[in-house]
Write a structure and sequence with these properties.
Largest sheet: 9 strands, mixed, barrel
Structural class: mainly beta
Order of helices and strands: EEEEEEEHEEEEEEE
Mean pLDDT: 93
Distance between the termini: 40 Å
Length: 209
């Protein structure tokens, strides 16, 4: 069933202060794209510019409860490395406002429709993406993992030193639909994909860099 997503117009609700803490499920994939992804001049590509990193998260418990789809290139700035979050959609209006105000993230409101092993994401402009995933047999014990990201602009770059503890497992991620508003894909199967489920995550305040 789709998670409810209010209309994007009107005032956004108040949001909790950082840090935000969660429990839930996460899928991450590297998708090959047809054209090089743009990288701002203050950052450097970490894995080339022909791979789009995509993260799908279900925050089931914690500070807020919502779904999230984020994407962008993997980059570095000095010794820091992580995902440059170019596009991000969430299903909760408090998360939209908190993400924009605290972390400088370009969050947009969307609805997430889940079925057995798949999800479809739709925003006010129409369908965004559909993803399907199939679990592998291997499952590692839970251990700490970094979850870093960049946000903001070249003049006000922010680094988000997120971290989680979870059970890492290989999972197949495939694209079932893809908006022409997104970078064109070279193929619809991921070059590399994993899941971390379940996880415990903490997202602290960002650091200026």
């Amino acid at each position: 069933m789709p998670d409810s997503a209010p209309a994007p117009n009107g005032p956004l609700p108040p949001y909790p202060p950082a840090p935000w803490s969660f429990r839930g499920h996460l899928w991450a994939a590297l998708l090959p794209v047809r054209h090089r992804l743009p990288v701002p001049p203050d950052l450097r590509p970490l894995a080339g510019t022909s791979l789009l990193a995509v993260g799908l998260v279900r925050y089931r418990e914690g500070t807020l409860v919502y779904d999230e789809l984020a994407m962008g290139p993997l980059v570095r700035r000095g010794r820091r490395a992580g995902l440059l979050i170019d596009r991000i959609w969430v299903s909760d209006t408090a998360s939209v406002r908190g993400g924009r105000d605290i972390w400088g993230l370009p969050k947009e409101l969307a609805s997430f429709t889940w079925s057995d092993g798949s999800v479809h994401v739709t925003d006010h402009d129409g369908p965004v993406a559909g993803l399907a995933f199939a679990p592998g047999r291997l499952r590692l014990p839970a251990f700490p993992l970094p979850l870093p990201g960049f946000s903001g602009s070249s003049g006000r770059r922010l680094f988000v030193p997120g971290r989680l503890v979870g059970s890492l497992r290989p999972e197949t991620v495939a694209v079932t639909s893809w908006s022409d508003r997104l970078p064109p894909l070279e193929r619809t199967t991921a070059r590399l994909s994993v899941a971390v489920r379940p996880f415990r995550m903490t997202v602290p305040e960002p650091v200026r860099c």
